[in-house]
Amino acid sequence: MTLIGGKFPRRLAVLALAALLAPAAALAGYEDLANEVQEIVLDNGLKILLLERHDVPVFSFMTYVDVGAVDEDMNKGGLAHVCEHMAFKGTEEVGTRDYRRERELLEDMDALYAEMLAERLKGDLGDAERLSDLEAEFAELQERADALVEPNEFSKLVEINGGVGMNAATSTDATRYFYSLPSNQLEFWAAIESDRFINPVFRQFYKECNVISEERRQVVESSPQGRLYEEWVTLAYKAHPYGQPIIGHRSEIEAYTRPDAEAFFRSRYGAQKIVVAVVGDVYRDELERVARKYWGEVPPAPEAEALRLVEPEQLGERRVVLEDPSQPVVIVGYHVPDARHADTPAIDALADILGQGRSSRLYETLVKEEKSALFAMSFAGIPGDKYPNSLLVIGIPNSGVDPEDLEQAMLDQVDRVAAEGVTEAELAGYKNRARANFVRGLESNNGMANQLCYAEKVLGGWRHLFERLDRIEAVTAADVQRVAGEYLTQKNRTVGLLVTKPAAGQDS
């Protein structure tokens, strides 16, 4: 979700950019970073992580909420994504011209929408005339409520106070909120950022659902690749919620109610589910003071029951074929363990050697030598990391190449790793790239904040972040061959093909 860009003074823009690009050399070194991270745990269970970097007067943060699409209930998929959108709509004090009057109108709209929804769900048995009257009345209430809204006030306040890079993202595993500010705006940040988790107002909710519906149309329904991925992931995960779309199904989006979303928020967005990482020109004493003053007011949520559902072992290859006038695509996915599993470092190495970069086997063989693929790569961690996930191999055939022929060529490369293993040179190349990419990801303030939060909630604690290089170094060629043979098997794979079929009236 992208919001208003910045118009703050040029000097602050330069400082913010400098913070985002601050080199790790300004610190004591990677090995010392683990000793530099400070932890603040508030009475409500919310945790704040701090890494001080005083080279430029700015800081970045990540508010990481351990709530994603995997935490949703059947019939209400996509509500985590809705809560992300609503977090930018303001609070009881931000975004409104008269909250008391606005609240009354919002409650009236909720009651009216419930009647409209009940009538719609009757289908052909519904009263069309009554529904039309309800919709007209609802539109009038919406117009009156909109007149009390101060549009984009939250974003504007952040911008006026020097904020840059404001955005958010919802995944299967979590929802993240982030931006950067001058360090003299620490208390402003603590006040306004915490308030949207304490007193959020889901204003303009039904209008925003229309925005989300259009977003789904663009990224899924009007995108052949998006449709293929959704079909593939639904087929690959027949039980686990990883198989459900993050954005929700259209029928769910069109039936959301504001009370549904508020109930989801209150039951999931508890203080104990939130970790905030702050990296930059911030001192511990001042951060702890404002954190206890503002973030300490975030209420805890009821402890959610742990997810019991485990994806059953796949017993045979699954396939889905879609026809479309667009360019063909091949997806081959294999079930692999979660990010904490001992095999994950070797699986990451396998994905890199097989299909990441111009030196990978897929690129060298299929793109450069055989020219059967316009594009080919592989990567792990799809669709999430908290639970067992998938390693994907993806290819786009060159003109005149049948998708099934490219699929077989891709499978040949997979089978070759399992049969022959990888060379020491390939493994050394992977380790060099992995080390460089990892350290590079910690150089920027926002990159470090993101990695700290991820490690805290996904890996079991932020200190595990600093074990990453040791885990990379420990991988052997035998490990890579073993995981290829164990996980990249025929019965464990799900294949998705997008096959070109000319539109009606179009020449073949």
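The above is record 1. Record 2 follows with the same two-line structure.
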Amino acid sequence: MYSWRVPRAAAALDIFSAVGEPRRREILSYLASEERPVGKIAAALRLEQPSVSKHLRVLRDVGLVQVRRSGRRMLYRTNAEAIRPLHEWSAAFERYWSQQLSRIKLRAEQTNKENG
């Protein structure tokens, strides 16, 4: 019988899918401050090195992580520019929640005046 499921690799072809995995978000956050080798990432996040390497490959394939060679080591860092679409997309929700919180504050102040 055939399986009609989409292969896992195909699910990670865009930045939104890539950051949908919690470990990848952890890796991106950890790399935000400075570039680091795989071993340091694995140790700091308490993950197995092969698992980190697989996550880094997905992140690199979608452009969220950049890599450079330093001697025999590969150093990884977050590509902040590639994260811009995520930020822009989430900005719409920030505006929504900001408006909601403003409404709640206004209601609370009105209730306080009426009761005070």
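Residues 80-115 form the longest helix (36 residues).
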